[in-house]
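Sample log: Mycothiol acetyltransferase.
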Amino acid sequence: MNFTVREATESDYPAVGAVLTAAHGGRTVSAADLKASAEKTRTHPKGLHLAQWVAETRGEIVGFAGVVQWAGSHHPDRYNTTLAVPPQFGRQGIGTALAETVQAHLQGRGVQEVLAAAKENEPYAVAFLERRGFTELEREFANILHMADLVPLAVSLPAGYRLTSLQDFRAEVGEERALEAFRATFNEARADEPRQIPAQPYSMDDIRAYLKHPTFFPEGIWLAVTPSGMTQSGEVAALTELWQDLGDPQRLSTGLTGTARAHRRRGLALALKVAALERAQRRGIRQVITHNASVNVPMLAINEKLGFRPEPADIQMRWGAICSKSLAKVMQEASKGQKV
């Protein structure tokens, strides 16, 4: 097949979404999803990098490759890559050409570490990455809950905590105080979440950007808050998140669920997750999707208890590695709220 590789534009996103959907055989990827993700990356206060290409033949897009930096695990020399070719166009050199384009681009930027993923039920994709020097890092499951299968659990917040949405909490205590309280627990929960790539702390600028994403669901972030009379009035003890799906108004994705260290082992995370899912069910939501690393055993157990069922795992793979001294410096600067 004769094809060319060129930089992608926003006008390509409908076709790119179709390529990604067909290549991975899973959740539909819409042009709106791609546009929102690109906008988030390009406008992020960290100055994140984004580059995208398409393979095209006779005006038809038959492959896609992308390079992006993620805010939550950001390091200036770490990049995440995506490469997709629909099955009907496989084994014709398209994937190889796109991979070579990505490689040349990253070498020009002095890359130290590259992350990619392949489905465990697609051994050819795993082998493609292994031939290019990638090795397995960890496995992540997409767990799907059909809301008709939600298991009713009689759980509630223990005495001394109250349930509120982030939206209402901001109105109650003020924007700055609410976001700082949210950020403190958000960072602490992410820091202790089992993962191979360390979570980088979010600054206040990061949090503001995070909550301006087009998929932000104002009614989807729920908090367990300490009332007056405890150590700190209005402390966010735990949180859980649901995010909109731009391609399907009846589907949501989960974000972080976690508890501040001082408030753990009291059932807060489970109670919050149940409350959020029950409210979503009453709003007519049909499906909720969550992603969990295989090493995150506590959250996998909670999701299974609620009725989530795992899809084939994504094998997270890595080429190269960030030296620990360099990474520690970046995380230290981020924890102080500096832009990096």
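Observation: The radius of gyration is 21 Å.
Observation: The chain has two domains: 4-140+316-335, 145-313.
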